[in-house]
């Protein structure tokens, strides 16, 4: 069953491997018999009626929200703000006239997010919850729910819920774009099917990642992740994964930002993991890598097919440029997993952490 590890040594590895299947399940659940997108009219109406979306989330779900902002702005033409739940309540931004709140939460039980939900419902605003647990508190207390269909996620480190959140946000953006009669140059379900295949190819390359970890993250105290555009958001997630299960101090930075201070931490051999899946910033991220290499950094470039260079550490299959986080995150998850294994850490139950944080 979903609650058992089967032949897997850890839930996290099982859940990483489940991602292609989750993508296919989402494609199935969100299409009707004519292969059209299937979403509640009520959700569609709320999306087209709002003048701004406020995404509220924590941790990995917040990182998925950052990617979702790109979809909603670029495809559906709606301005989006993404907020960390614990900051929002007492540091509330000026709200637009017709806000729609979107809560992203794997568990649907995160107390920080719930307190925002309670507050904005008191203010009379509509809320949509995107969650893996349909009967959860955040789902019950919001006006609308979109399910992630990822199946139970047991490992404390979130993996398949993150990619499910991104896929559902893409579907939501495309559906809204269509409802607004906006032209879209791609079929989201077809593109997600390509993603599912790419994910499968990636989960078949565990040994390559394991070796990269052995050779580059063995005894390091810290590691940096750099990327531009959506690669930056995946860097935040890659760094969080590495921190929470391997206890390596890790930080994600926008490629151009490191030189404004943090580059002072680069020493001989400091691992710098760079993501290069975006054509428009491929040149600039590679020059950021050169800046750190010149200070002794050990660079590991994760690029995408079509943008790769000979010296890159790893190349992910080509997917639609908006959907690259769905594939580039997989080697980041595996990197964290093997780094934790290497250090004999408790992969599924890292110290100090609970699966869902139900206190504010
Ligand atoms: C992810 O690896 C973390 N364990 C954590 O950041 C998590 O994403 C966060 O607590 C939010 O949880 P939720 O999605 O259940 O609301």
In short:
By secondary structure, this protein is an alpha/beta fold. It has 13 helices and 10 strands.
Structure description:
- It is a single chain.
- With 360 residues, the protein is an alpha/beta fold.
- It is built from 13 helices and ten strands.
- It has helices at 11-17, 19-29, 41-49, 59-74, 85-88, 111-122, 137-141, 160-179, 188-203, 206-216, 230-246, 282-293, 324-342; strands at residues 52-57, 80-84, 99-105, 127-131, 144-147, 222-227, 249-254, 271-276, 298-304, 314-316.
- A five-stranded parallel β-sheet has the order 2-1-3-4-5, sandwiched between helices. The chain has a five-stranded parallel β-sheet with strand order 7-6-8-9-10, with helices on both faces.
- α11 links the parallel β6 (222-227) and β7.
- The protein is globular and about 55 Å long.
- The two termini are 33 Å apart.
- The mean pLDDT is 96.
- Bound molecules: 2-deoxy-2-amino glucitol-6-phosphate (AGP).
- Its main location: cytoplasm.
Explain the layout of strands and helices:
Layout: H1 11-17, H2 19-29, H3 41-49, E1 52-57, H4 59-74, E2 80-84, H5 85-88, E3 99-105, H6 111-122, E4 127-131, H7 137-141, E5 144-147, H8 160-179, H9 188-203, H10 206-216, E6 222-227, H11 230-246, E7 249-254, E8 271-276, H12 282-293, E9 298-304, E10 314-316, H13 324-342
Parallel strand pairs: 1-2, 1-3, 3-4, 4-5, 6-7, 6-8, 8-9, 9-10
Helix pairs in contact: 2-8, 2-9, 4-8, 4-11, 9-13, 10-13, 11-13
Bound molecules: 2-deoxy-2-amino glucitol-6-phosphate.
2-deoxy-2-amino glucitol-6-phosphate is lined by residues 58-61, 105-107, 110, 113, 156-158, 244, 353, 356-357.
């Amino acid at each position: 069953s979903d609650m058992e590890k089967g032949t897997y040594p850890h839930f996290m590895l099982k859940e990483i491997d489940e991602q292609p299947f989750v993508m296919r399940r989402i494609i199935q659940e969100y299409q009707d018999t004519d292969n059209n997108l299937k979403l509640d009219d009520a959700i569609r109406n709320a999306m087209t009626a709002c003048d701004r979306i406020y995404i509220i989330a924590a941790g990995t779900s917040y990182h998925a929200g950052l990617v979702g902002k790109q979809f909603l702005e670029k495809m559906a033409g709606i301005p989006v703000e993404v907020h960390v739940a614990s900051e929002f309540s007492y540091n509330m931004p000026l709200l637009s006239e017709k806000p729609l709140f979107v809560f992203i939460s794997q568990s649907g039980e995160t107390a920080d997010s719930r307190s925002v939900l309670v507050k904005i419902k008191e203010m009379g605003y509509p809320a949509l919850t995107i969650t893996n647990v349909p009967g959860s508190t955040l789902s019950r207390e919001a006006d609308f729910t979109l399910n992630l269909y990822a199946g139970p996620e047991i490992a404390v480190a979130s993996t398949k819920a993150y990619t499910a959140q991104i896929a559902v946000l893409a579907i939501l953006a495309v559906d809204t774009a269509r409802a607004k009669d906006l032209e879209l140059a791609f079929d989201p379900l077809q593109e997600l099917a390509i993603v599912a295949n790419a994910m499968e190819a990636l989960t078949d390359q565990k040994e390559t990642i394991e070796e990269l970890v052995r050779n580059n993250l063995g005894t390091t105290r810290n590691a940096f992740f750099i990327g531009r555009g959506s690669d930056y958001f995946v860097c935040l997630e890659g760094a969080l994964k590495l921190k929470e299960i391997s206890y390596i101090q890790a930080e994600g930075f926008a490629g151009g930002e490191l030189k404004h201070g943090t580059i002072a931490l680069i020493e001989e051999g400091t691992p710098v993991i760079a993501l290069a899946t975006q054509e428009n910033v491929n040149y600039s991220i590679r020059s950021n890598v050169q800046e750190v290499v010149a200070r002794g950094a050990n660079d590991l470039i994760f690029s995408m097919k079509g943008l790769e260079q000979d010296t890159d550490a790893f190349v992910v299959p080509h997917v639609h440029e908006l959907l690259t986080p769905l594939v580039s995150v997989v080697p980041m998850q595996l990197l964290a997993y093997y780094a934790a294994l290497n250090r004999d850490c408790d992969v599924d139950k890292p110290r100090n952490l609970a699966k869902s944080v139900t206190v504010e």
